Batch of 2 targets.
Target 1
Amino acid sequence: MMSDGFSHSNAFAAVADEIARSAPKGVLLDLDDTLYAYGPCHAAGLRRCHERFTAAGGTLSHESFCDHYGAARERVKETTRGQAASHSRLLYFQRLLEGLGGRTDIGLTLELETAYWGGFICAIELRPGAREFLETLRRLGIHTAIVTDLTARIQLEKLDRMGLAKLVDFVVSSEEAGADKPAPAIFLLALQKLGMKPDEVVLIGDDADRDGRGGTDLGIRTVIIDK
Ligand SMILES: [Mg+2]
């Protein structure tokens, strides 16, 4: 958490003050639940999925559909934990439908994945102060790398949707690095892309383990934002 002691209107204003003071060469920045609130987007994605599922003849209530989703998610994670694929909605929906129908429903699996991310992306909203924070970094000449678990395709789409495409220098996904946070590979790849050392950057994220431990284990100064 940021220490108190200076006034701020949002979490990013506080971080920007701190960055301006410590003047790092670069900032590593988490995406999900740092730059936007994940929960409402996920809920919107699942709602749109359930609508598509129902239109295709599915008879589960929304609550039951979400329960099946959660169970399928856990089964996928049993074989993919620590990899970007462990977050794959495509695999979750494939497993969910296999559990219901006893076979891989290729067409509906693809449709549910499209519906989920469509609903998710439509609901995405930048956190207050996030854009101003990135603009401040630009103004200060501080380079940025987004460091994010999940596959590159959807993470790039989220950043594009939020209008941040021109405000970040690099994106590093766990798909590209080969492992989710807090494994060091993703942070090391970001440092390599930036051409910087651990003590030249600050890492900002929302998760004390994935971001906090991942960064500090490498000697990176880490700030966990107050959501
Ligand atoms: Mg996060």
Target 2
Amino acid sequence: MDIPENERQPAALVGLNTGADGLHFEKSMKELAALASAAGFRVSGVFTQNLQKPGAGYYIGSGKIEEIRAYLGMTGIDLVIFDSQLSPTQLKNLSAALGAEVLDRTALILQIFGGRARTREAALQVEYASLQYMLPRLTGLHRELGRQAGTSGSMSSRGAGEKKLELDRRRIESRMAEVRRDLESVGREREIQRKRRAGSGLPMAALVGYTNAGKSTIMNGMLREFGEEGERSVFEEDMLFATLDTTVRRISPGGGKKPFLLSDTVGFIDNLPVPLIRAFRSTLEEASLADLLVIVTDLTDPDYRENLEVTVKTLSEIGAGGIPRLFVFNKADLADRGKDIGISVPCVSAEDAKITISAKDPADIARLADEIGRCVNRGRIFMRLMIPYSDGAALASLRKTSDITVLEYTEIGTLVEGALTESDAGRYRAYSAGT
Ligand SMILES: Nc1nc2c(ncn2[C@@H]2O[C@H](COP(=O)(O)OP(=O)(O)OP(=O)(O)O)[C@@H](O)[C@H]2O)c(=O)[nH]1
Ligand SMILES: [Mg+2]
């Protein structure tokens, strides 16, 4: 992944400013450069054009195309990356007009995901999304492949080309069906794991947020402080989309505090390509099953407010809109903005819990664990119960689901005090021993 800067393939970037929102355009271009470098390219020239509406055929204007072409000719660069998703026609036309390989934002993100997938599920999800992206763009890609292979006249005659195209199309479709089947079987395994987790009776908190916000660093901090012996840490790195799968770990803060499950998953980004959202649905949906969303933000990112909006929007798109939220403003060691957090971010409301931390500071990790514990136990009911020895099952079940603070074996039964879930409180009301 760490190719030295001067050995990376150079690429020119092209962005279209439709004038709707200049700030957003700037951020989008900055992000495109970060994505290009995450995919292993070196950004060389950057071209922008102000146009109210992208052209249907060529996306940008003919003058701009000429300008870029001249630049490519002069520098010998043969890769051009566009800031949004291009239609199959635009892709085909631009690659012909520029005489270069053309990638759009979607292809770029797909490429990054492809290089990062570690688990079988992630690899299958990325493959599916890539095939889906390729299918309507085969003609454009073919032209590209044909040229690269230096195919000579007779071989690339129109008839042969079309037959090959049809063959490729069918091959891709059948591979897609295969991948879909494999994904379904992985999905069944995931379902079993989910059931097992639900059966543990432990509340689940999900780390979510923009890519590179520090989710995996928090997970590892938690594992170091409160993880079970021998549990593996997760991959954390200063790059976009370091994490592509979901890891769930049990966190036991100790000191009479109830353990909880914590999940770490793939990060969000503005305009995450639709095929990827679809392909990663099952991974992203883990968040929609959580009792608490721990929304992590990088305070040092000047765009952290916009990133939060994107995160909140994506969460509601995957059906996690109604889950209680804890906003974590991270990397406080690098930023001196502790004061203004949460005040001017419209998507953070008064009901949301908030905390500012540095994921690198063990004391902050402990504070965060406390806060998560408090949030996942919110809505619980404090009760004092006398459980007769004849109902051993009740005690066993309560131990799993409740935050028990007192437990005494008396002559008439077991005295239990603790925070019960609402349903347990109803179920065991008969054993109530006053408060
Ligand atoms: N100084 C400092 N660096 C941090 C902090 N939290 C995370 N980082 C760094 O930020 C980078 C990204 O952290 P990750 O934990 O990989 O981010 P992530 O949210 O899991 O990112 P993706 O998996 O790509 O979505 C890493 O280089 C971390 O070491 C923090 O509180 N302070
Ligand atoms: Mg991560």
